[in-house]
Specification:
heterodimer, A: 304 residues, mainly alpha, two-stranded antiparallel sheet, 14 helices, 2 strands, B: 323 residues, alpha/beta, 6-stranded parallel sheet, 13 strands
Chain lengths: 304, 323
Amino acid sequence: MSAVAFLGAAELGLVFALVALGVFLSFRVLDFPDLTVDGSFPLGAAVTATLIVAGWNPWLATGAAMAAGALAGIVTATLNVRCRILHLLASILTMIALFSVNLRIMGRPNVAIITQDTVLTPFYGLGLSDAVLRPLFVLVVVAAVVALLARFLNSEFGLAMRATGVNARMARAQGVSTDLHIYAGMALSNALVALAGALFAQTNGFADVTSGIGTIVIGLAAVIVGETVMRSRVILWALVGCVVGSILYRIAIQVALNADFIGLQASDLNLVTALLVAGALILPRLRNPLRAGRQEPGTQGTAR
Amino acid sequence: MKITRIAGTVLALACLGAVPAGAQVQSKSVAVTAIVEHPALDAVRDGVRDELAEQGWKPGDTLRFDYQSAQGNPGTAVQIARQFVGQAPDVIVPISTPSAQAVVSAARDIPVVFTAVTDPLGAQLVRDLEKPGRNVTGLSDLSPVADHLALIREIMPDARRLGFPYNPGEPNSVTLLELVKKLAPEHGFSIVEAPATRSADVQGAARGLVGRVDAVYMPTDNTIVSALEALLIVGAQNKLPVFTADTDSVQRGAVATVGFNYYQVGRQTGQIVARVLKGENPGDIPVTSAEGTDLYVNPKAAAAMGITIPDAVVARASKVVGQ
């Protein structure tokens, strides 16, 4: 694996770490399996790219993308909380609708911003190579998000949100408005996913309506791999685990891309990636057979 | 035991590498990537490889030929682009728009020859088709839509309405839709859109056209081409002739087309790649359009779909499928 390929994998892992953090928030904290992310990721990319082409400041465009993502999360939450639609189905409905919405926003399936200014443009002149600069930039963003999110989840509001996910009835008995926390959590989760989409578009120069396919799988894989490698009940470490899990997932793909020497073809990529991730999940059990019989803390959600 | 075997393999590989390459042709490396694997895009890849082999760079001998498919995921396409940039091959050949954008944004110095991109300017791959500049050139596969419409008119003089199945999520198809809508009135056609966002939706989209159109004109759309058989079945069952934009699809059972096949697109791309391998600067090579005026007809399919292809058309066809 060359340095450029490794840095590329790390950069993409960091971009998708924002997806993992969003999925962690909905799936682990709120116990809300949310497929909206397959739509809110390209939504973030679509809004950013369209606004940048329209001449907006890239930072404002990124902010608008997050707002659009939050809105998508609120739509899913409304379908679930107010309309009593099963959470999985509610999120699928939003996801499908977003495909059309994204086409409307962009006006066509693919908007290029290769030649436009992005949030990264001012940094390109600093003398660092692109391959180093881009992951560094995303790392700073992700570190800031992790710090803010850890602080939020340890605040009174955040603790009430965690209580909502663990036991909604109990939380309500304690005077917590669980509906409010589902709205807020879903908005925040999808805003983070849209931010990932916005950064993906800006680091790679295009927004494509198909770029959301499989986002939820990547996010979930990152969360679960992260839980396997970093077992902790401390919320900050659980969040860091998501980031680490996301980078490990990308490295798994990188290894799969280089697996042709053992007779594998390009079409085997998804299978090899799945096997590598499955291996990463099984290995810790094999290492310690005494624990294998016990309930893995990861499978129940470490950080509630 | 294991170590000796590995050492043996390494030694064998080293020996293979040490075999002197062809006298005049130096070893080169070309890395090819496509957004997804399907017959047309695979044919482009094979065309590139065969053209390079014919020009003296034999894969596995004087040419290192890498191929990666993103399996439909633009995120993976980006990662493949970074991997290729890290490998620093002599030329990177991205097939399709998203793969090309991922490669162009990642590669600043490595020569890039994109292909199977309908609108290179709209995709911001180059700023100027005649003088691309920088490290990028390539081949556009914009269909000769006017020729297609003229051919349909010649075979079906009374047809008025044309169904246009396409995936609104594919940039190429949307460009073609705009073009066909602009050109259709000149040929006396009106266009009825039939969007299908997944290959599983193609049959439903085709059924929706029955009774509303006189013929179907299928663009070079990845989703529709992948599910062509679903479209052909609906055409045969309802006597609705299906015309296509690529010759491969006529061999699979569509009525007729005039145009290129994707293997030829690959061969033409390979010629540009070869020029770059010989030392030309990609930025100095104009972006070319896929050529080919092959007329493919399939009289048996036409009969199944309730029409006859005029003898004059069959007589000048470069290929009559089934003969």
